[in-house]
């Protein structure tokens, strides 16, 4: 056990400065109870001998009282300062460490640090108490060292047994895995066994103190201090036992992760044993919920900028800093997801051929169809894709590939497949237009003074061509995907319909959603972007109106007409879909291969223009 604790310390904190800082923190934490015990002894002396000193040594008594209150105030102040700075010290140690772990081990690393600190502080306090007892009563102090050593040796034996169990759990097959209740129960029983041994040792030590006090070999004030000190010392041994069993679990996960990534969730899928946030792992659970502050908002902005720069390591670092002092809000988790999505698309950041593209990621984390746009560009070219903010002016040539974003087109934009959100939209007329989504967007562009564009087609329909998608076995069910703006509608769904969310952004999550869709017998949607995905994947689809929305109907018509299809029938079903007969509304439509070829050719041409940086040719 002691070797594992030392190994965890050197593994978590690799820099000499961070080791010294953490060591100083642990020593200070450990010495606080000892200092408080000395303060208690001062108080006991004042209580027991104050009356007799009041007449003879009034000045000395006043000074002794002042010294007691000063020592008491100092010990409490240090106590609060240390607790407030523990997370900050660990975070600095992690950031300076050269030992990198996969992202899925980040929470386990924090859990290891907290359990390491708890166990280490307990051990140091036991040693300090033993030395203090030797100073108060050498004979009893030596005897207590023997008792304490025996108890710690037994706790170490229990720890080794618990560590072996935790490693065995990781090797269990799904169908023979030990249940969560049994796992937790065994861990708690081992922790309590160590606490029981500590209580028995304390009772034996107290019997010796009582015997020496009654026989007159021990002063009354020292006996009181020893009584309180023994309770504190062996309580720490009990805490050490509980922390050691939790540390065994964390150590098993990190050890397995070093052998090949087994620190990810277990195959049995049981929540309690898959995450380091059970009732006792305090890495995040004991942290307060986050509240918006200028500091946290600044970290979020820096994390997003790091993602846009393709620096995933910095994204992880900022995320760890946000988690170090509070439990992140959902909005912060969404920001982190978006930063990681930016990073995956833009990395490696140093790639000379990075292509800037404009798409709409808000409200974070955005939607699958919007994030699919840059993903398709990356899969088509093999080049990283940088993010061009829609509302930021730039002279840098950039792609505008899909979505209802023509209002944000600039002189430096190269447009292929994007459209407008309605008749009232005013597209930017000065970009280089190779194509738009459909004839309705083209008409809006002409009214705004832009070019007469006759090339149509949303590149989202290229998804099946450009992405390697698995085809799961059919489930015999339907999937419903509503438009993100309708998230607050309360829907009533038939039993054979599953609702899926389009609110994903990371490339793997986007591909995962498309793969899930292919397992359904059909898709019901009010989202034009989902209709484009169904056309790309060849899935039966029913377009429905959950509420009257002219803008969505406009985009649906524009999309279909731009791909050479008849206008889609939009079924006004409302929020109650129980009796809508959704299966009968499904329709399978296929985009012609020559249309797909033309859309892909225009996309490749747009990529070439942006890649060449042909700013001189960006006007028509």
TrEMBL record:
Keywords per UniProt: Membrane, Transmembrane, Transmembrane helix
Superkingdom field: Bacteria
TM segment ranges: 20-39, 59-78, 113-136, 142-159, 193-211
Region described as Disordered: spans on this chain: 257-295
Transmembrane is among the record's keywords: yes
Sequence ranges of Acidic residues compositional bias: 267-278
Name the record gives this protein: Uncharacterized protein
UniProt source species: Nocardioides aurantiacus
């Amino acid at each position: 056990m002691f070797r594992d604790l030392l190994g965890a310390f050197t593994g978590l904190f690799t820099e000499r400065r961070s080791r010294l800082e953490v060591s100083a923190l642990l020593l200070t934490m450990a010495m606080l109870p000892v200092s408080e015990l000395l303060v208690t002894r001062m108080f006991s002396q004042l209580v027991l001998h104050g009356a007799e000193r009041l007449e003879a040594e009034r000045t000395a008594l006043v000074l002794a009282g002042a010294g007691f209150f000063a020592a008491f105030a100092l010990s409490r102040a240090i106590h609060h300062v240390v607790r407030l700075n523990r997370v900050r010290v660990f975070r600095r140690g992690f950031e300076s460490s050269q030992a990198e772990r996969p992202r899925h081990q980040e929470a386990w690393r924090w859990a290891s640090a907290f359990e390491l600190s708890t166990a280490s502080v307990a051990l140091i306090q036991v040693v300090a108490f033993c030395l203090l007892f030797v100073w108060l009563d050498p004979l009893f102090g030596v005897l207590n060292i023997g008792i304490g050593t025996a108890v710690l040796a037994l706790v170490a034996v229990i720890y080794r047994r618990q560590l072996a169990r935790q490693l065995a759990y990781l090797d269990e097959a799904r169908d023979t895995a030990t249940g969560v209740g049994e796992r937790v129960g065994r861990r708690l029983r081992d922790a309590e066994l160590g606490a029981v041994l500590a209580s028995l040792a304390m009772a034996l030590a107290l019997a010796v103190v009582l015997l020496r006090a009654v026989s007159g070999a021990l002063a009354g004030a020292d006996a009181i201090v020893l009584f309180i000190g023994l309770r504190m010392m062996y309580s720490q041994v009990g805490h050490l036992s509980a922390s050691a069993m939790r540390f065994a679990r964390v150590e098993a996960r990190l050890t397995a992760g070093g052998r090949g990534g087994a620190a990810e969730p277990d195959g049995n899928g049981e929540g309690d044993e898959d995450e380091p946030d059970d009732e006792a792992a305090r890495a995040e659970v004991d942290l307060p919920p986050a509240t918006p502050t200028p500091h946290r908002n600044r970290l979020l902005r820096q994390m997003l900028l790091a993602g846009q720069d393709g620096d995933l390591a910095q994204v992880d670092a900022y995320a760890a800093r946000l988690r170090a002092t509070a439990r992140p809000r959902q909005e912060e988790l969404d920001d982190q997801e978006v930063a990681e999505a930016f990073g995956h698309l833009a990395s490696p950041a140093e790639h000379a051929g990075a292509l800037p593209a404009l798409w709409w990621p808000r409200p974070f984390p955005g939607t699958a169809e919007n994030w699919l746009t840059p993903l398709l560009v990356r899969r088509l070219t093999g080049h990283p894709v940088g993010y061009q903010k829609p509302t930021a002016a730039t002279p840098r040539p950039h792609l505008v590939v899909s979505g209802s974003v023509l209002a944000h087109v600039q002189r430096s934009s190269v447009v292929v497949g994007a459209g407008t959100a309605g008749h009232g939209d005013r597209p930017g007329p000065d970009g280089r237009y190779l194509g738009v989504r459909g004839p309705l967007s083209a008409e809006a562009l002409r009214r705004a003074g832009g070019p007469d564009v006759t090339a149509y087609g949303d590149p989202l329909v290229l998804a099946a061509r450009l992405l390697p998608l698995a085809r799961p076995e059919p489930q015999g069910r339907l999937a419903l995907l509503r438009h993100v703006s309708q998230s607050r509608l309360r829907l009533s769904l038939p039993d054979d319909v599953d609702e899926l969310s389009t609110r994903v952004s990371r490339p793997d999550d986007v591909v995962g959603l498309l793969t899930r869709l292919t397992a359904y017998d059909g898709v019901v949607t009010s989202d034009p972007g989902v209709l484009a995905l169904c056309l790309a994947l060849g899935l039966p689809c029913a377009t429905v109106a959950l509420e009257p929305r002219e803008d969505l109907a406009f985009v649906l018509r524009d999309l279909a007409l731009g791909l050479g299809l008849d206008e889609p029938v939009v079924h006004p079903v409302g929020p109650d879909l129980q009796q809508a007969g959704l299966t009968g509304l499904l329709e399978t439509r296929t985009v012609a291969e020559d249309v797909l070829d033309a859309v892909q050719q225009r996309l490749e041409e747009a990529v070439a223009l942006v890649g060449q940086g042909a700013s001189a040719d960006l006007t028509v």
